[in-house]
Amino acid sequence: MQHDILINWSPQETRVALVENGALQEMHIERSLERGLVGNIYSGKVARVLPGMQSAFIDIGMERSAFLHVADLFNPVHPKAQEQDPAHPALVPIEKQVFEGQSLMVQVIKDPIGSKGARLSTQISIAGRLLVFLPQDNHIGVSQKIPQEQREPLRLKLIELAHQADEKGGFILRTNGEDASEDELKEDIAYLRKTWAKVKTASQQMPPKSLLHQDLNLLQRVLRDMVDETTQTIRIDSHEQHDMLQVFGREFMPSAVSKLAHYKGERPIFDLFNIDDEIKQALGRKVALKSGGYLIIDQTEALTTIDVNTGGFVGARNFDDTIFKTNLEAAGAIARQLRLRNLGGVIVTDFIDMQKTEHREAVLAEFAKQLSRDKVKTSVSGFSALGLVEMTRKRTRESLAQLLCEPCAHCQGRGIVNTTRTVAYNILREILREARQFSPKEFRVLASPKVIDLLQEEESLHLAGLSEFIGKPISLQAEFGVDAEQFNIVLL
Q1: How far apart are CA 38 and CA 40, in angstroms?
Q2: Is residue 288 in a domain?
Q3: Are residues 443 and 470 in the same domain?
């Protein structure tokens, strides 16, 4: 399917929208002060080893220490164990491989998310335009997305090119390198080896907790990772950045240069496809379907749940067909929302119950078809005994909501607040608690106007009864601008 890429650039923020058939499919945002870490290589220092978790915390100069699991160490398998049981080789315990205070070259494979620090690996890889370089390994591989019958000829071709220089290191051919010429592959090999040489030199000269190599910025990654034969245009609203991309493209991605265009329109570039409105909708819980049905999407730190509802859709001749058509539409809408919101981890979808087996199979097939367009790795199971579809989507960076939003100051991220009456009753209980410990002349309640109105009107009898019981007057004072749940009791 053909797509367009729109780039809105400002000194503080770069926003990239991928649009298919006029609809926003993916949104990528990079802020100059909050740039992602994935792909960066650091000289880290082991801060703590945790044998019980088979992990270690590594200081790479960030606010939080990063996390390294034993499986992400380079060559963590016992050589003899590999020979005895290749399918399930035993790992060398992490406490026998690293120690506190040790310096390690590490690479970020997952950005910090929420309260979790970045995840690291000592298995270094450097991505180029056509290839991924594995400097510690001699493995030569080909992307699984390339048709199987083409993989072996391409692998043999890459082996010949990679070993011409008689240097160590392995390579993996990326999807967009499928039709690359020998000269293009040679150029990418030379660029990646040169980059690795700079990293090694920096590791020898720079102190621990130093950044040795930084991955490309979002603008450059657009040309490297997002542009392919289905890309029609790449429009950017900054003349300066357009020129920079042209220079970068001519060196590393010549085929993309002809698609680059400087947008000079009077309207903001994102207004062309109502991108900002789409972003607002992507931050909400409810997603309307064209049929009248809707999705409810709830994101937590552990998993994401998606509930499909028919809403007002009654267009089919019978209820089974109504449910089936709603679920079919929902399958495509969910796949799009996962890409747009960049939801990762465990995702559970509650499709509307379907009685017919062929309907369930058709919905699963449509869901798999729509997910196949996603460049991020996904894995979907069938319907469970409870009628739920469980899936996973690889999570490497924060979701759109985590990037653009923060927990509500009023509800602290719960999504709900106590009712006015609940707050009023909390106040009455607190006054009684204070009266048992102190004996002031008067208790004064400071709270939001709604709470004060309730205490003065509907709860006035209870307030008067409490005042009589404790033998002290209780006065009320409205505080404008405070949260609905906030209150103070002043002892006078």
Answers
A1: 6
A2: yes
A3: yes
Q: Which CATH number fits the domain that encloses residue 467? A: 3.40.1260.20
Classified as helix, coil or strand, 474 is strand
Q: Is the pTM of the predicted complex or chain greater than 0.85?
A: no
Query: Do residues 178 and 202 both lie within one domain?
Result: yes
Task: Say if residue 264 is in the same domain as residue 292.
Answer: no
Inter-residue contact 363 to 357 (CB < 8 Å) = no
Instruction: Tell me the CATH number at 241.
Output: 3.30.420.60
d(C-alpha 37, C-alpha 46), whole Å: 19
In sequence order, which residues have a C-beta less than 8 Å from that of residue 13 and are 6 or more positions away?
29, 30, 31, 32
Amino acid symbol at 354:
M
Report residue 267 as tokens. 């309207």
Give domain status of residue 74, yes or no: no
Q: Which domain holds residue 439?
A: 420-491
Task: Give the number of domains in the chain.
Answer: 4
Give the whole-angstrom CA distance, residue 492 versus residue 478: 17
pLDDT tens digits for the chain (492 residues)? 789 999 999 999 999 999 998 889 999 999 887 788 889 999 999 999 999 999 999 999 988 899 999 999 986 554 444 454 455 557 789 999 999 999 999 999 988 877 788 999 999 999 887 899 999 988 899 988 788 888 888 988 888 888 766 678 899 998 778 878 888 888 788 889 988 999 999 999 999 899 999 888 999 989 888 888 889 999 999 999 999 999 988 877 788 899 999 999 989 999 988 999 999 989 888 999 988 889 999 988 789 999 999 876 555 467 788 889 999 999 999 999 999 999 989 999 999 998 889 999 999 999 999 998 888 888 898 898 888 999 999 876 788 988 888 888 777 777 788 899 999 999 999 999 999 999 899 999 999 999 999 999 999 999 999 999 999 999 999 998 888 888 999 998
Distance between CA atoms of 120 and 47, rounded to whole angstroms? Answer: 14
Phi-psi region of 138 (alpha: psi -120 to 50; beta: other; left: phi over 0): alpha
Residue 275: how many other CB atoms lie within 10 Å? 19
Token duo for residue 413: 């991220």
Q: Is residue 343 part of a domain?
A: yes
Pick from 401, 435, 464: which residue ends a domain? 401
DSSP letter for 352, please: P
200, 205, 210, 215: CA torsion to nearest 10:
-40
Q: What gap in Å lies between CA 471 and CA 451, rounded to an integer?
A: 23
Q: How far from 172 is each of 127, 186, 199, 201, 455, CA to CA, in Å?
A: 9, 13, 19, 24, 70
DSSP 8-state symbol, 32 = T
Query: At residue 274, what is the residue type?
Result: N
Residue 197 is assigned to a structural domain of this protein: yes
Q: Which of 208, 236, 265 is the last residue of a domain?
A: 208
